[in-house]
């Protein structure tokens, strides 16, 4: 049995149908363009596909902060109305689908739309996380605008709120990490701590009338199992060709940062192998949060950075975008415009070859001053990412971001206090502890920057991009503070 595929009435491709009913045609590379037609026919059936576009396609995946739709972002009415202006921004969201074994078929999350042109009826979800991802949309819109609308942009969303990285990982990826358990803990009753955590995480409030024990509504128990979302929501699209992947996930792995250090990079490498494409992979370092998991968010952000050791992987941070007033709970900050823009900068530099600043400041060295009463953090000022260093507070912090709130000094396991910070004319940041009144012969063991659950102050460059949180441990304990 055969299948004919004709592109624009002139390019003929012929495929042989396998006994299983599967067939495949790989089209020749096409220039970015619009208004194509594809006719698929057998001896008894003809299907015509119209309004086909060729362009760059991106996969957006992760949990609820990637799933959260445009309607729940800042200035949502304006953003939804504006979406009509980008008809060649093509959008598609996979239906949620957990499977015990890999499948090949895929369904749309929306009952009407398959591929759809950007517009209010597509991006305006009636419920949180209802149809199209805000982070993915704002990333794609930035790219579409910067390309002058000349290149159609396809955005494919595959997300499930509350999901863990293990659920998105194939069995091959999980086999790379010896400390993988069969599943993460799941809620066991209406009053269980885990159920309340999931309700707060996913919905941000408890009055939405959702029964988390009803697996027909949200299947939380099912999505805490290994590989089930890879099987149901990644494996079906492995034959698609993606320019890059953007990823926003990690909150549900807060209890095991050490395991995440292995599983997340393993997932990235396995996806590239399965897609047979060495695509760029960009991800979001999770946002500031002051709810459950006290003291656990900084180690998780730290664990996320391990993936940067994998080639062609980039990270942007959202740690400065905390949103205590979000109607979905502060685990879901509404400023997805900034998240999408920062992800776009990474792709605009790496994939499209533009010489821009896409990263925040990054120090080159740390040293003690001659009197051992301050730490000098040096920045390479020849790097444009280190130009125009300055401190800014979050939207929730009008007065707390000052010269004494960005860096912490640690003596052993005890946080001493925030250091007094100045920026020198040469661009170095000097952190002093002259007023800490340390005991004689005590010593500084480490210095931290924004290494906390809800950072309030960050160091920025002239491009408005923040420095990443860090924790620097001084292993040479012979360097003491000699204050009396």
Walkthrough of the structure:
The structure is a single chain. The protein has 484 residues and is α+β, with helices and mostly antiparallel strands. 20% of the residues lie in helices and 23% in strands. The chain contains 11 helices and 21 strands. It has a 7-stranded mixed sheet. A 4-stranded antiparallel sheet has the order 2-1-3-4, with no helix packed on it. A 4-stranded antiparallel sheet has the order 12-13-18-17, with no helix packed on it. The protein is elongated and about 85 Å long.
**Mean pLDDT level:** 85
C-alpha termini separation: 89 Å
Proportion in β-strands:
15-25%
Percent helix, as a range, is 10-25%
Secondary structure tally: strands: 21
* Oligomeric state: single chain
* SS-derived structural category: alpha+beta
Could you provide a short overview of the structure?
With 484 residues, the protein is an alpha+beta fold. It has helices at residues 64-67, 76-82, 120-123, 134-146, 171-174, 193-203, 220-223, 228-234, 257-275, 297-304, 336-350, and strands at 2-7, 11-16, 33-41, 46-54, 56-62, 89-93, 116-117, 153-159, 244-248, 280-285, 313-317, 363-368, 374-379, 390-393, 407-411, 414-418, 420-423, 429-432, 446-449, 457-460, 470-473.
What layout of secondary structure does this protein have?
Elements: E1 2-7, E2 11-16, E3 33-41, E4 46-54, E5 56-62, H1 64-67, H2 76-82, E6 89-93, E7 116-117, H3 120-123, H4 134-146, E8 153-159, H5 171-174, H6 193-203, H7 220-223, H8 228-234, E9 244-248, H9 257-275, E10 280-285, H10 297-304, E11 313-317, H11 336-350, E12 363-368, E13 374-379, E14 390-393, E15 407-411, E16 414-418, E17 420-423, E18 429-432, E19 446-449, E20 457-460, E21 470-473
Parallel strand pairs: 5-8, 5-9, 6-8, 9-10, 10-11
Antiparallel strand pairs: 1-2, 1-3, 3-4, 6-7, 12-13, 13-18, 14-20, 15-16, 15-19, 17-18, 19-21
Helix pairs in contact: 4-11, 9-10
């Amino acid at each position: 049995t055969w299948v004919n595929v004709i592109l624009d009435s002139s390019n003929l491709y012929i495929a042989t149908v396998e006994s299983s009913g599967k067939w495949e045609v790989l089209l020749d590379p096409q220039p970015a363009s619009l208004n194509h037609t594809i006719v698929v026919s057998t001896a008894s059936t003809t299907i015509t596909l119209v309004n086909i576009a060729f362009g760059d396609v991106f996969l957006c995946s992760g949990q609820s902060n990637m799933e959260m739709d445009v309607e729940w972002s800042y200035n949502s009415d304006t953003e939804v109305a504006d979406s009509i202006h980008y008809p060649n921004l093509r959008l598609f969201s996979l239906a949620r689908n957990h499977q015990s074994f890999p499948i090949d078929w895929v369904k749309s999350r929306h009952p009407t739309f398959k591929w759809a042109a950007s517009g209010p009826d597509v991006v305006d979800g009636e419920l949180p996380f209802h149809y199209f991802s805000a982070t993915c949309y704002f990333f794609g819109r930035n790219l579409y605008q910067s390309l002058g609308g000349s290149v159609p942009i396809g955005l494919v969303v595959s997300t499930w709120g509350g999901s863990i990285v293990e659920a998105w990982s194939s069995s091959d990826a999980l086999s790379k990490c010896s400390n993988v358990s069969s599943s993460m803990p799941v809620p066991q009753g209406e009053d269980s701590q885990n159920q309340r955590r999931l309700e707060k995480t996913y919905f941000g409030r408890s009055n939405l009338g959702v029964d988390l024990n009803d697996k027909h509504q949200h299947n939380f128990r099912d999505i805490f199992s290994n590989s089930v979302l890879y099987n149901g929501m990644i494996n079906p699209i492995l034959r698609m060709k993606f320019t890059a992947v953007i990823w926003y996930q990690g909150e549900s792995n807060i209890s095991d940062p050490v395991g995440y250090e292995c599983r997340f990079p393993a997932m990235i490498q396995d996806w590239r192998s399965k897609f047979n494409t060495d695509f760029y992979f960009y991800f979001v370092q999770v946002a500031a949060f002051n709810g459950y998991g006290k003291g656990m968010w900084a180690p998780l952000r730290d664990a996320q950075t391990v993936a940067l050791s994998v080639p062609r992987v980039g990270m942007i941070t959202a740690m400065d975008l905390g949103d205590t007033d979000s109607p979905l709970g502060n685990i879901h900050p509404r400023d997805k415009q900034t998240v999408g823009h920062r992800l776009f900068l990474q792709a605009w530099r790496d994939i499209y070859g533009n010489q821009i600043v896409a990263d925040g400041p990054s120090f080159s060295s740390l040293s003690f001053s001659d009197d051992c009463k301050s730490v000098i953090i040096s920045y390479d000022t020849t790097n444009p990412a280190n130009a125009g260093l300055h401190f800014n507070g979050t939207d929730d912090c009008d007065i707390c971001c000052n010269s004494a709130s960005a860096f912490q000094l640690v003596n052993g396991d005890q946080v001493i206090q925030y250091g007094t910070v100045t920026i020198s004319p040469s661009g170095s940041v000097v952190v002093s502890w002259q007023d800490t009144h340390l005991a004689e012969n005590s010593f500084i063991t480490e210095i931290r920057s924004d290494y906390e659950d809800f950072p309030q102050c960050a160091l920025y460059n002239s491009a408005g991009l923040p420095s990443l949180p860090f924790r620097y441990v001084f292993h040479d304990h012979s360097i003491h503070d000699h204050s009396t």
